[in-house]
Please model this.
Amino acid sequence: MPFRLKPHKPYSFFIEHTERSGSRLLADQLYEQLVDETHRPIVLVCIGSDRSTGDSLGPLVGTFLEERHIRNVHVYGTLTKPVHALNLVETLHEIQTRFHQPLIIAIDACLGRLSSVGYVFFSEGPLAPGAGVQKELPAVGAYNIKAVVNVSGFMEMMILQNTRLHLVYELARFITEGFVDFDARIGRLHHEEAAITRLRQSRDESKS
Model:
């Protein structure tokens, strides 16, 4: 069941990946939160490694989105070119150099309570990648998406490596469909804005 925290707290929304029409509900939340920011380049940083099953969520999302040829969201982090601890700082520098005032959304897998496994969290604020496995990396993003792939506990690196690929794959597909829907909505918005601009220009020219 989808759930949104109270308005006076930092924005946060979470939903189980098996929820009916869940990807559309995720897209609804993405659009509601980011519609006023669509004049900025929106950049997804899909963090993770294909060398660990549990940690492959980010690269899977990036790969799926790349295959869907989305046009209004820029993607960093795929199975071919993952973004991980060794190149995260370099990647963030590249994004800031390439884009003017980018709105970054970080995507990563995480471990949590048993009752949270299979849930996707979309929250305001930066992501602290590697925190669950005691790695010190820079915080990433104005917003973040985390998917709980397994239960936290002792020897978390081993837990990630022994996480079921099926769950990670399904979570990645869920997130991907949400962003494909969101990307299409941004495209329609930009088209409408361009049409209004052309109409205004035409009216101004007819008056002159």
User: Anything to note?
Assistant: The two ends are 57 Å apart (CA to CA).
